[in-house]
Structures are given as structure tokens and as C-alpha cells.
Write a structure and sequence with these properties.
The complex is a heterodimer. Chain A is α/β, with parallel strands linked by helices. Among the domains of chain A are: about 90 residues, Ubiquitin-like (UB roll), CATH 3.10.20; about 110 residues, Alpha-Beta Plaits (2-Layer Sandwich); about 140 residues, 3-Layer(aba) Sandwich (Dimethylsulfoxide Reductase, domain 2). Chain A is built from 24 helices and 31 strands. Among the domains of chain B are: about 60 residues, Arc Repressor Mutant, subunit A, CATH 1.10.10; about 80 residues, Glutaredoxin, CATH 3.40.30.10. In chain B, about 45% of the residues lie in helices and about 10% in strands. Chain B contains nine helices and four strands. The complex binds iron/sulfur cluster (SF4) (3 copies) and FE2/S2 (inorganic) cluster (2 copies). One iron/sulfur cluster binds next to α4 of chain A.
């Protein structure tokens, strides 16, 4: 809409006509107090805190519902307004117990701040306060009725934002009360969004209540370690005897890729880090065949000497490496470099939750064809094929709902089963059980097994479209779907893609080359390009994960290094297969796989280390170390130390120190003969200083940027805490062939599960049980 | 709602609901009248009533409760067979409504929202019932009694007692129980729950 000019407190402001006055003022740095107003939710005008004086209007107006127009004149602070706000607060305090000293919100409460500002600490109302005992609605959500100021934010957030509609208001007037849908229990998604938006301490969180005061915590913003959406999360941490403890997770400044949003896992699931089952000492199998605690030094020396011995006697090809889909990009990159250059094996894989390699193949050479999670929040039209974002990609579901609600985006859904997001869909196509394969042909008009032509016409009528597709697509099917989109649009924005996978960094695992046939950036091992500088890179593809276990079963796998993965449980591998293999596991817990190992290293979680992770849409974010746990080490450091113990010059793995990687003085032969230190040259060209520690993951980030196609990152934004894009289209089209038989095993984690980490989170377990009980109860009714 | 579905309501009321829901541009607009009719037939808004009304309209039970709890005329516990509603708003008040109301309390031995032990009467103080010209006025179920003085009270109560077949000494006969609507379990339920107050009282 056209811009209009109006005057606020004597200042001339300009904003598009129809902007809410409160928003226009906030943009201009004029703060108008508000309790019920919440950006993005419907207007309530319930609290009257935002009143302002508008010239020529007889009564004070609510800034949260007044839209700006040309020539208006407003006053936002005056004795009259202050008095009005003060009276409002007195009214709101009518039932309030004024128990700030014991309230969780104390110190970050909007009511407290306003009472402080307008000085209405004593309510003039003579009636007795209506008191009610605090209620526990679920393991996550507690309600203190007397503190509630009836702003309805929680109701609107749950209904409009979450599309759960689990909260309501009952009775009226002074006895109005917020009520949960299950009588005295909440039967809902347990996201905690209601707690987050509550301006006071009426809704409090089961995991944080009465633990600490907000000012006693340090706040570190990092990336959620659960699903593949990668929400930015602020961890509130406090010093304790053996490190520092996470006491709260929220998205405090509402910045980042997820804005307001966090789901139950991101908000409450962090307690796995404190699990008593956490490994804090290395374990080594003793002569009686039992795992017993050992020093780091001993465990490293033992593991290193065995690895070396097996490599030297049986050859690198007899060693397998399994990486993680929740470790950082730097760790994944380092792991594959360690596998390929130190262990001399291409047998490196991870538990693949989706087929990213197929996406890279399909997109090679086509830039700007992927959609970021932010794009999905603003795209005018989205086609969602397969998947169930509400359960498996909560942030994606939130973005889709928000986009439909605020921007009237058109959402088209094709799925074999009904999914909840269809409530937001403009059209839904029910596919037959095997219907996904037919979609590209159906969209292209050459399929007659799917009869619904209206759906296709609606989709094809869209000028620009984001296609989000699920793990139902693998291999050739991914390529056909992408091929349809690439053919379709003349301009770069016409069709863009997003491919769904599981876990915090499975995209990063694939991007960083935890694949037996592909180097980082999906560069084939047979045509290593930039990676030619790797010393002694084996040139033939290695074993896939199932092939490794097959070889182990036949006694042909000498050693197996597993980092942050539990293939024994997640793929149902027979434990007996590993009895003749020397197994090293780096993990947080004694998983089924770790229990079989000869050496177990206790690893740090994502919340206890730094590095970057890539979500399933290709958005890279910086994870920052928040908590600390005595005894554990980041996988990065474990790998560097392991390599060091094997006698490797660590500089060949991690380019650190003033001299860079290798200063070749023209004396060597081979690919790099006579060349200068490429890394040092690159650093200098990019105005970067060399990193000083071999344990600094950013040294590897430098190398990733230098060598991995698609990972040219916008550093300023990355280090500023924003998400930045990778570009899989930069993968060279040359030599990309169909991958070998790859085993893709989607995790299908729900709202309260998340692989190994979820299993060790008491909070998520409790929420899962609570929801199972609610389900059983409503089924019994 | 299809014919085969089990319903709490009489066939007549069920049919009326079917028509009512289609009458408005938004189905949920039928909510308040449905709740009133349902209360007239069943006696109060039981959990089962709320759940069926929600299902018929296609909204959540929570939404039904959000609306229902707003209105003081809707109740969630059974009332007596005769629900005595005494208006104490301005016109009635000026003409002695409180004396009338007090007399009812004495005669029945119950207060606001109370219910007699035999379940025959309940008492409520209500807002204007639209009979101001003949104040003070009361309403018993849908019957009006107006221009009252406290002296009228025993006679009014006696009238209803005899209507219910209860001897004027108050001893309980089985007569009125037979007249209780629908099934016996419901009337037992009434008595079992009769002590409580309305949820927001
Ligand atoms: S936790 Fe989430 S789903 Fe549950 S009531 Fe609060 S906002 Fe709604
Ligand atoms: S519980 Fe909190 S968010 Fe909900 S209405 Fe009360 S004050 Fe507002
Ligand atoms: S689990 Fe996924 S949606 Fe939930 S907070 Fe973490 S990244 Fe966000
Ligand atoms: S913020 Fe405007 S009325 Fe509440
Ligand atoms: S005031 Fe009593 S009927 Fe109107």
C-alpha cells in the first residue's frame, strides 16, 4: 500500500497506509506498551495498555488496532495517557497476587515492567482477590490463575499459530479463567508456545519453573539439536560444579530462522545432556571382555595403535567409518578426511535418513533452485508432496501455517494419507499407496492413474512454486520430480525445491561427504577435483553402511569407527556381525552400538561445542557452545587427538597455525609439486587469519569454504547468528552418476522422539506418556 | 448428524437441531439456541450434552464450554424439578424483591443456586426477566408469577408441590419421580450431584 505520513509525538513518520500504529511506532523506536497485542496474531484489544491520544478524536485510542492514515497526529505519552495506563494496570492487578519474588517471570515480566514504569503497585480495588491454586495441565505447562491478565495471547497462539486450539476462556468478567481442553489437563502438541507468549508468569514451564532467576543465567543462542529444521534456540545456562548446566531453552530474541517458534523438543528436550546415563569417561574393553573406564590418554593410545595396526596389516579398505547426522559440518568433514587420508578408506557412510545425493545429482549445474526455510514462510504457493511436517518438521509446519494465515499463500498437498496441514491447504490430492512415483508424470500431464485434474491445473496455474517433498522420494524418483520443475520454469524463481530429511545435520553429513562414493560437495571419489590435494586419496568407492556390516559378518572388516550413530539399533544389525571387528564408538550414551565397542569415547553434544550445521533446506547456521560437561570432548577434538596418537601430522588434517597446511618448497612430486600452500593463499585472499589451534573447528570451516562446492558462505551473517544459504547447484554436473545401492532409512520421529537423544530426555519421555494417556482417555470417551 | 447415530435428544429435538444448524451462514451460530433447548430437555448441560452439541456443530468441546460458561442461564449441574428464579434487578428490587427472595430462602432452606434435598426445588437470584411492569416478578421454569409479596411465597411453593404429587407436609411420595424426564439414571444423577454449585459461582 502507498506510504502515508503522520506525526507521533511531534516526529514525522512514514509507513504504508493501513499499518498498525503500534507497529509503525515500534519501527521508529517509539515503544508503546502492550499486553494483548502480539505481532502475527489476530487483534484482541483486550488490555487497553496501548492507549494513545489521537488529535480530533474524543477518546483515547488503542494503538494496536488503529491503522495509520495520511495526516494523523498522535501523542503516545502524556500525563493523561500515563494515568489511563496506570488505571489499567490497577484493574489488571485486581486479582493478581503480586508474588513477583517467587514468580518465574520476575525480571522478564511485561506486567512487572509496566507496573514499575507507571507506578501502580497497589491496586485500589477493594474487592477480595479471587484466588485459585496453581494447576498442572501437563508435564510441560503449569497455570497460575491469579497471575493471568487475560490478554488471550496464549489462546490465539495455540489456536491461530499452532492450529491446536487447546486453550479457551471460561466464565466471564472477573471470574474469567483460561481453561485447557481436557478439563484439568492439556491434550495438545506440548510446544510451550503459550508459555512463551504469556506476558506474565501465569503460564510456566515444567522444566524451568522455580529453577533460577533470568538474570542468573547466561544466554547463548545456538541451533536445536533435534530435527532437521534447525531452529535457533537460546539456551539459558548456569554454572554448576562439573561445568555448566542448561536450565532453559527458548528463542529469546525471536530472531533467526524460526522467529517466534520452538517445538516441544527444542524447548524441553535439552535435558538429555544432564542424563545420568551420559558417558563421561572413556571406556576400554578389558581382558575379561568388559568395558571399563580408562583415561583419555590410554583409550586414545589403544584405539590409535589398533587402527594403525589394522590399516597397515589389512589395508585401509578393511576399515569402515560411520558418521553422524547430528555432529557439525566441521566434524563430518574432518571425519571423512580422516577416513580417506589417514585410514585410507572410502568405506564411510552414515545412517541416511533421506537421499540428498540424489537431490544434488538432480540439481547439479542449476543454481537458485532450492528453497530455504525462510522462502517457505513467504512463498506465494507451495506444493507439499508426502511427509507429515506437523509431526516430523514442526518448524516447516509452522512456516506453512503462518504463510497461509498472514500472506494467504496457497498450499497444495499431495499425500497417501490425510495429514493435519490439509486444514490449511487450498487443495489436497489423495494419492494411492504407491502414488508418489507418478507425481512427476501427473504434473507433466502424461499420467492417467491419478484422476484429479483440478488439483494439477491449480498447481500448474501458479507462476512460482516451492515444491517440498518427503523421504518417500529416493534416487530416480527425486531426479524425475526435480527434472519436471527444472523444465517448467523459465526464470530462476519459478520452481524451487526442498527435500525433507531427519535429524539436526543429516544434510550436513551428506554435504560433507560421509558417503562411500562421494567427497564433500558430492564430488565423486573417482573424479576428486579440488580434493586432489588430499594426500593418498583412495580412488574407488568404498562400502556402504550395509556392505560394511556384511563384510564384518564375513570377518572382512578389521575395524569400524562409529561417530554419533547407533546403526545396530536403527538398522537392526545383528550384534554378532561385529565380533571379529575392532569397534570404536564416539557417543553421548552407551547405545546398543557402543555396548559392542572395544573403545568408547564420551562425546559432547551439539550444545557443548561450536561449529556449523546445515538444515534439510540447505540453511547453514552457527552452533555455539553453551553448556559444559566435565569428562566429555567434542567429536572434533577426539578425532584430532586420535589422528595425533596415530602419528599423523595434524596440520595435514586441520589447517591451523601460521604456516597453513603444507608449505611445499618445490621439492615434492605429484599433484602439488611446486605449489604454494593453497590454504594460506586462500586465507590471505579472503583476508582471514589462520586459526591457531588444531581443535578450532573454524579452521576446518575455512577449508570447507575453500574446497566444498556450494559452501561459499556469507560469513558476516553466519557469525551474526543468522542462517545462510548453501547452493547445491554449484556441484559440477560432470561425472555425477547414479549412486550405488544406498540404504535410506527415514527416522519418522514424532513430536516427542528424536533418535538417541530423545531416548535419554526425561522431559520428552514424560510428554510422550502424557499425550499417550490423553489419547487413551479421549478414545475411551 | 445421520439418523443411525446415537443421540441424547428426543427425535423432535434432534430434528430441530439438524434444521437449526443449517439456518445460519456459520454453523456455530446455532450454538447458543442449541444449548438452551438442550438444557430445557435434559435439565442441564451434562458432559454428554456438550459433547454431542460440539459434534453436531463440528467444533471442539472446549469451544462449547467457552461459550456456555459465559451465560449464567446455562447450568452444568441439574436444577430442581422446579427452578425458582427471583429477579432482583432495579424495578423488582425497588418493589421488594429481596424480601421475596429471602422468604423463598427461608421456606426452602436453600440459598442462591441451592437445591432442596428432595430435588424438587432449586433457587436462583437472576437479572431482569422482562416483567418489570409487574415487579417484583419470579419465573418458575417458564411460568411467571408477578406483583409478589413475601406472603405469596408459601402458596406458590405449595402449588408446585401438589403439582408434583408431594403432600404439603413435605414428605416425599413417589409421584413426582415418575414424572422425571427420560431415564432413571438421569434422575439419580441429579440427586447425586445436587449439592454442588455452578462452576463459576
Ligand atoms: S503447549 Fe502448544 S499446543 Fe499445548 S496449549 Fe500451549 S500452545 Fe497449545
Ligand atoms: S495465561 Fe498468560 S497469555 Fe494466557 S491470557 Fe493469561 S496472561 Fe495472557
Ligand atoms: S526439533 Fe525441529 S522444529 Fe523443534 S525446535 Fe528443534 S529444530 Fe525446531
Ligand atoms: S495492546 Fe492494545 S489493547 Fe491490548
Ligand atoms: S427488573 Fe425484575 S423483571 Fe425487570
Amino acid at each position: 500500500m502507498a506510504d502515508v505520513t503522520f506525526i507521533v509525538d511531534g516526529k514525522k513518520l512514514t509507513a504504508p497506509a493501513g499499518t498498525l500504529l503500534i507497529d509503525a511506532c515500534r519501527k521508529a523506536g517509539i515503544e508503546i506498551p502492550a499486553f494483548c497485542y502480539y505481532p502475527g496474531l489476530s487483534l484482541q484489544a483486550a488490555c487497553r495498555m496501548c492507549v494513545v491520544r489521537q488529535e480530533k478524536v474524543p477518546k483515547l485510542q488503542t494503538a494496536c488496532t488503529t491503522t495509520v492514515a495520511e495526516g494523523q497526529v498522535f501523542i503516545t505519552e502524556s500525563p493523561e495517557i500515563a494515568q489511563a495506563r496506570k488505571s489499567t494496570i490497577e484493574l489488571l492487578l485486581g486479582n493478581h497476587p503480586l508474588d513477583c519474588p517467587v514468580c518465574d517471570a520476575g525480571g522478564e515480566c511485561e506486567l512487572q515492567d509496566m507496573t514499575f514504569k507507571y507506578g501502580a503497585g497497589e491496586s485500589l480495588y477493594a474487592e477480595a482477590k479471587e484466588h485459585r491454586e496453581e494447576q498442572q495441565w501437563s508435564p510441560a505447562v503449569y497455570f497460575d490463575r491469579p497471575r493471568c491478565i487475560l490478554c488471550y495471547r496464549c489462546i490465539r497462539m495455540c489456536g491461530e499459530g499452532m492450529d491446536v486450539w487447546a486453550l479457551g476462556v471460561q466464565n466471564r468478567g472477573v471470574s474469567s479463567v483460561i481453561a485447557p481442553n481436557g478439563g484439568d489437563q492439556l491434550d495438545c502438541e506440548q510446544c510451550g508456545m503459550c508459555i512463551d507468549v504469556c506476558p506474565v508468569g501465569a503460564l510456566t514451564s515444567g522444566s524451568y519453573r522455580y529453577k533460577t532467576r533470568p538474570w542468573e543465567m547466561n544466554h547463548v543462542s545456538t541451533v536445536c539439536t533435534f530435527c532437521a529444521d534447525g531452529c535457533k534456540v537460546t539456551l539459558g545456562v548456569r554454572q554448576v560444579n562439573d561445568g555448566s548446566e542448561i536450565v532453559r531453552a527458548d528463542n529469546r530474541d525471536k530472531s533467526g530462522i524460526n522467529g517466534d517458534f520452538l517445538c516441544a523438543k527444542g524447548r524441553f528436550g535439552f535435558d538429555f545432556v544432564e542424563s545420568p546415563e551420559r558417558l563421561t569417561k572413556p571406556l576400554v574393553r578389558n581382558s575379561q571382555g568388559k568395558l571399563e573406564p580408562a583415561t583419555w590418554e590410554h583409550a586414545l593410545r589403544f584405539a590409535a595403535s589398533k587402527l594403525k595396526e589394522i590399516r597397515d596389516s589389512k589395508g585401509g579398505a578393511s576399515i569402515g567409518v560411520i558418521g553422524s547426522n547430528r555432529t557439525t559440518n566441521e566434524e563430518n568433514y574432518l571425519l571423512q578426511k580422516f577416513a580417506r587420508t589417514v585410514l585410507q578408506t572410502n568405506s564411510i557412510d552414515h545412517v541416511r535418513s533421506t537421499d540428498y545425493a540424489a537431490l544434488a545429482r538432480a540439481l547439479a549445474g542449476h543454481n537458485c533452485k532450492t528453497a530455504s526455510l525462510r522462502d517457505i514462510a513467504t512463498a506465494p504457493a507451495i506444493l507439499l508432496i508426502g511427509g507429515n511436517p506437523t509431526e516430523e518438521h514442526p518448524l516447516l509446519a509452522w512456516n506453512l501455517r503462518t504463510n497461509v494465515r498472514l500472506n494467504r499463500a496457497r498450499l497444495y498437498i499431495a499425500n497417501t494419507k490425510p495429514i493435519k496441514l490439509e486444514r490449511q491447504a487450498k487443495a489436497a490430492l489423495r494419492l494411492p499407496a504407491d502414488g508418489y512415483q507418478a507425481i512427476p508424470a501427473y504434473l507433466g500431464g502424461s499420467d492417467d492413474t491419478i484422476k484429479d485434474t483440478a488439483f494439477r491445473e491449480a498447481v500448474l496455474a501458479e507462476e512460482s512454486l516451492v515444491v517440498v517433498f518427503g523421504q518417500e522420494y529416493r534416487g530416480q524418483a527425486v531426479e524425475s520430480l526435480v527434472a519436471w520443475g527444472l523444465k517448467r520454469g523459465p526464470n530462476s524463481g519459478s520452481v524451487r525445491f526442498a527435500f525433507l530429511g531427519d535429524h539436526a545435520n543429516s544434510r550436513g553429513a551428506a554435504d560433507m561427504g560421509l558417503l562411500p562414493d562421494l567427497l564433500p560437495g558430492y564430488v565423486p571419489v573417482t573424479a576428486p577435483g579440488a580434493f586432489q590435494e588430499y594426500p593418498g586419496l583412495p580412488a574407488t568407492p568404498g562400502k556402504t553402511l550395509p556392505e560394511m556390516f556384511e563384510a564384518a559378518g564375513k570377518g572382512e572388516l578389521g575395524a569400524l569407527l562409529v561417530v554419533g550413530a547407533n546403526p545396530v539399533a536403527s538398522l537392526g544389525v545383528d550384534p554378532a556381525a561385529l565380533k571379529n571387528t575392532f569397534v570404536i564408538v564416539q557417543d553421548l550414551f552407551l547405545t546398543e552400538t557402543a555396548a559392542l565397542a572395544d573403545v568408547v569415547f564420551p562425546a559432547a553434544s551439539l550444545y557443548e561445542k561450536s561449529g556449523t550445521v546445515t538444515n534439510t533446506y540447505g540453511d547453514v547456521q552457527l552452533a555455539k557452545k553453551a553448556a559444559d560437561r566435565a569428562g566429555v570432548k567434542p567429536d572434533f577434538e577426539i578425532l584430532v587427538r586420535l589422528a595425533g596418537a596415530m602419528g599423523v601430522d595434524v596440520k595435514t588434517l586441520v589447517p591451523f597455525g601460521k604456516d597453513g597446511v603444507t608449505a611445499d618448497l618445490g621439492q615434492s612430486r605429484g599433484a602439488q609439486a611446486g605449489e604454494a600452500d593453497r590454504h594460506a593463499v586462500w586465507l590471505a585472499a579472503n583476508n582471514l587469519e589462520p586459526r591457531l589451534s588444531p581443535f578450532d573447528p573454524l579452521a576446518v570451516l575455512d577449508e570447507i569454504e575453500r574446497l566444498v562446492p556450494g559452501y561459499t558462505l556469507d560469513r558476516i551473517n553466519l557469525f551474526g547468528g543468522n542462517d545462510v544459504r548453501t547452493e547445491p547447484g554449484f556441484v559440477p554436473i560432470t561425472a555425477l552418476k547414479e549412486a550405488a545401492s544406498a540404504l535410506v532409512a527415514p527416522a519418522h520421529d514424532g513430536l516427542f522422539t528424536s533418535g538417541t537423544l530423545g531416548r535419554y530426555s526425561p522431559a520428552l519421555k514424560e510428554l510422550e506418556q502424557h499425550q499417550a494417556r490423553e489419547l487413551a482417555e479421549s478414545a475411551a470417551d | 448428524m445421520s439418523d443411525e447415530t446415537m443421540t441424547l435428544f428426543s427425535p423432535r429435538l434432534a430434528a430441530r437441531f439438524d434444521a437449526l444448524i443449517l439456518k445460519y451462514p456459520l454453523r456455530r451460530s446455532a450454538l447458543v439456541p442449541m444449548l438452551l433447548y438442550a438444557q430445557d430437555e435434559v435439565g442441564y448441560l451434562s458432559d454428554a450434552v456438550i459433547s454431542e452439541v460440539a459434534e453436531r456443530i463440528g467444533i471442539t468441546e472446549l469451544e462449547v464450554r467457552n461459550v456456555a460458561t459465559y451465560y449464567s442461564m446455562l447450568r452444568f449441574k441439574p436444577a430442581g424439578k422446579y427452578n425458582v428464579q427471583v429477579c432482583t434487578n432495579i424495578s423488582c428490587m425497588l418493589r421488594g424483591a429481596y424480601e421475596v427472595y429471602e422468604r423463598f430462602q427461608e421456606e426452602l432452606g436453600i440459598a442462591h443456586k441451592g437445591i432442596t434435598a428432595d430435588g424438587l426445588f432449586s433457587l436462583e437470584e437472576v437479572e431482569c426477566i422482562g416483567a418489570c411492569c409487574w415487579a417484583p416478578a419470579i419465573q418458575v421454569n417458564y411460568e411467571f408469577h408477578d406483583e409478589l409479596t413475601p406472603e405469596h411465597v408459601p402458596g406458590i411453593l405449595a402449588g408446585y408441590r401438589s403439582k408434583a404429587g408431594v403432600p404439603s407436609d413435605g414428605s416425599l411420595s413417589l409421584g413426582w419421580k415418575a414424572g422425571v424426564p427420560s431415564d432413571g439414571s438421569l434422575s439419580l444423577g441429579w440427586k447425586a450431584q445436587a449439592e454442588g454449585n455452578a462452576p463459576h459461582a
